[in-house]
Design brief:
It is a single chain. The chain is an alpha+beta fold. It has three domains: 101-134 and 137-246, no CATH class; 249-449, no CATH class; 491-556. It is built from 22 helices and eleven strands. It has helices at residues 10-22, 26-31, 41-44, 56-67, 69-78, 87-93, 105-116, 160-181, 183-186, 190-205, 207-220, 255-260, 265-283, 316-330, 334-343, 353-365, 377-390, 397-416, 422-438, 440-473, 486-519, 525-556; strands at 126-127, 133-134, 138-144, 150-156, 227-228, 241-245, 250-251, 285-287, 295-297, 303-305, 311-313. Strands 1, 2, 3, 4 and 6 form a five-stranded antiparallel beta sheet that branches. Strands 5-10-9-7 form a four-stranded mixed beta sheet. It has a two-stranded antiparallel sheet with strand order 8-11. α13 packs parallel to α19 (422-438) and α14 packs antiparallel against α15 (334-343). The longest helix is centred in the C-terminal third of the chain and has 34 residues, at 440-473. Residues 1-7 and 41-45 have low confidence and may be disordered.
Length: 558
Amino acid sequence: MVTKHGKTHLFRYRQIAAVLARHGLVFLLEAFGLTRYVPFHRVIFKKIGRPATLSPPEHLRLAFEELGPTFIKFGQILSTRPDLVPPAYLVEIAKLQDQVPSVSSDKIQKVLEKEFGKPLNQVFATFDNKPLAAASIGQVHAATLPDGTKVVVKVRRPEIVSQIEEDLEIIQKMALSATRHWQSASQYDLTGIVGEFARTLRQELDYIKEAHNVELFTANFAGNPTIHIPQVYWKTTTSQVITLQRIEGIKINDLSALDKAGVNRKALAARAAKNFLKMIFEDGFYHADIHPGNFFVEPGGRIGLVDFGMVGRVDKKTRHQLVGLILAVVQQDTDSLVDTFLELGVARQPIKREVLKRDLSQFISRYYDAPLGELNLGNLIEEVMVIIRLHHLQLPSDLALLLKTLVMSEGLGTQLDPTFKLTYFLQPYVKKMIQERMAVSYWLPQLGQAGLNAAQVGLDLPVQVHRLLEDLEHGNLEVGVQSQTYQPFLNRLERLVNRLVLGIVVAAFINGLAILLAFYHPLDWLEWGNFFFTIGIIVTTCIGIYLSWVILWSGRHR
């Protein structure tokens, strides 16, 4: 439990455990194996700091915010996973605020001068010490280059990397513990989710990667007059600092300012939707942080886009599968819907296909005879997620992020235009993909690959059968059986054995103390005997009370 800096994680473990306990999240303490860091947590923290006016989801959000940047980011990632998180918690953690007190200007100046190797006034003509925004990983300052160009400078917070690395290591260990002891977590690849989160967060820490994201968007929208991607200034960009052209305009959700400026909000919503769908269905590379603060409407109606730390990628196969899901709903084709579902890799364990088909059939019957352009995509995805959670299915992380971004995009469009339907702008891509599927050029590569695979199987089959028969003949064939059903029983058996051992130790201690008092009387025994006897009684009484309380508590909560 020692970091590369030589510090132990003990303090941070205790801090995490104390915050969870104070918010009454005892089930998380037990699932993550943190109870030992908060002695008597059920008694001390059961009601303290947990106002009755707050719900458990609200307590979870507040706990994440209190625990700092890594947990805030983790909560934000979880808010993109409606397949894993119940709706009440999903709504609440979506409110997580990535706003923290700003770092002092002296510290920011030291970071910049260290990165550039020269005084700040030799790098920028002006630099505003008051930040435009302060987030958990970095903060943004307005500045001007020596030639007068207006820019924004995003600076990574000092010491943030070591703090995040420590938290990531702890969260990964907590995920392993939860997989072993929490039945709900064992049904999903929790360690895989945490691993994906760690990779995403480490990429967000590197501003060089963000700068490359900006340049890729610039290339994809070259010659497009409806969207403005800021320029990267590489001379003042490092892994810890990124300098971008300053985007100025009206925030896209400031409706009164848009109306005052004479902006046609309906046309603006259509323009934003077309650009966003282009990212997904033409470029396969999209902005995955679609919240109003990242969009500015410039004079003339051009949309300025900022903050490129969180992006998503989607391959051609996934795009076709997504469109296939929508078509299956419109065409009332339950079998195609089930097949596409399973092709997406949502099943991590055996499922009952007929039961899944029945639930999906009831779902699509509600959209009978509904035109594609009139579907509410957000409601559609929300209903699908209910079925996914019911059958303990799990979306691939890239698809979960895409669906969340689609829902956010539709919500943004609805803010601008109450009649907005994202599916209306999706229709051209659906028609195009249908035409692609009907073309010979779409099937020929797949048929060719299928033929090669069949030929390879035919060549490998005799060899594989021969190896199998050899293993069977020599007794080397082994069959592994794993059942999640046994795990809760084994966990309970382990707790019972631990209590039994503790009871035996207490009894042996009392018995040994009694024998000692009866037969052993050294010099000065009268002076020291009462003292040792009192200490022994106190220790055994405390252990006995604790053991009795644990047994009674487990009986009430069984």
